[in-house]
Structure formats: C-alpha cells, structure tokens
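Quick note —
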Amino acid sequence: MTPVRRPWIGLNCKLIPEGNDFYYKLDHLYVKAIERAGGVPVLLPFFRKTADARAFVSRVDGLLFTGGSDINPARWNEKRHPQARLLHPEKEKSDFLLARAALAADRPILGICLGMQLLNVAFGGSLHQHVVGHGEGRRHEVDVCNGRTRETVGRRPEVNSYHHQAVNRAGKGLRVTALSPDGLVEGIESDRHRWVVGVQWHPERILDQREQLRLFRSFIDACSSNSH
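Predicted structure written out below.
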C-alpha cells in the first residue's frame, strides 16, 4: 500500500538585516505546530512576480501566514501612525502576492496575528494602527461566535496577546468569528473559500491547550484533500 503523503504547508518568513546582509527568519514554534498537527512545513522565499507566487502555491497544499510587523496603511488609504513599525517592502509585496495566489487557487489558509491582518487587507478591509493593552503575551478570554474557529477552540478559550494592531473594517466576504472582551476582532473566516481562517492570537505558543492544537489539525485536515 502506498503511504499517504502528508500535506505540504508553506510558511512565510521575516526578512532580518545583519550588517550588509539579509536573512530569512521564522519562529520555530510555527514549524513545530505544523509538524505536530501532521503537516510538512515548507519555508517560503520572497516572490516579486504574480506568476512565481502562483507557481509555488500550486506546489503546496496550504499556506500559514505568520506574525510580524505592520502593513503599510497606504493599502487602505490612511497615513502611517507614529507607532507603526512597517514591514520590509519586499516582504509585504511577497506576502500579498502569496495571499492573492492562494485565495485564487482556493488553498486552505491559516493566518496568525499579522497573518490575519494580511488576509483582512487582502479582502479590502482596514486595520486599527495602534491599540493598547494587547501586547506582552497577556492572557484573556475571547468570545468565539461561530464558524470553524468555534468548532475547534470552543466558546471561550483563553488566548494570548502579542499585537498592537487589529482588524477595523472587515474585508468583503469575511465574517468576524471572535471578539476580545473590549470588542476587538480576534477571529475572521472567509465565506467565499472552503477553509480560510484568521486568529489574532498565537496558537503555536499555547499548544499545551488541546483546543489550540485542534485548530492546527483542522487546518491540516483541510490541506490533506490537496495532497496526493
């Protein structure tokens, strides 16, 4: 019997300067979470052309968009807030090329923190550029209303907070699935795609909570239908 291939999951990286050189960087906890949930992590290079992003997306079974710095607010026609720490332009361009290619191909997508914000902007939404009280790993409950997020993490999971930006206006075709106690958006899902989920917290950092691992396993299960 031919063994079933584990799904390949593309993960986007940061770009970190060191002297005159630049290096890709990725938190190892994302890799561990994908492996523990049954997938094969594939670290993605940056892309400069739509065709290259589409070609790479065709070779993976799903995309995990990871955390990081801030998206340029020019994308939703706002001026930059003084507290905004913008992504490297090459990374931002690559991330949007990848997101649009993955959405066009209907690949399963999990967006975490910045990854969720990226999805919202890709759908035409906007962000709060600076919020207080949501950083430094603070723990709080979220109210999960509906969708796949509710099915996996339950009604009131305790999550962590490492962000200073958040979804403001949800993009067209996105549904808000979770809210923090002070009303900030903590989860979104697409009504147009078979599995596109964004969460504002970092589930890869709290995998000791079974419901957070279930979120990754639900993602990998969706990606498994693409693997062969």
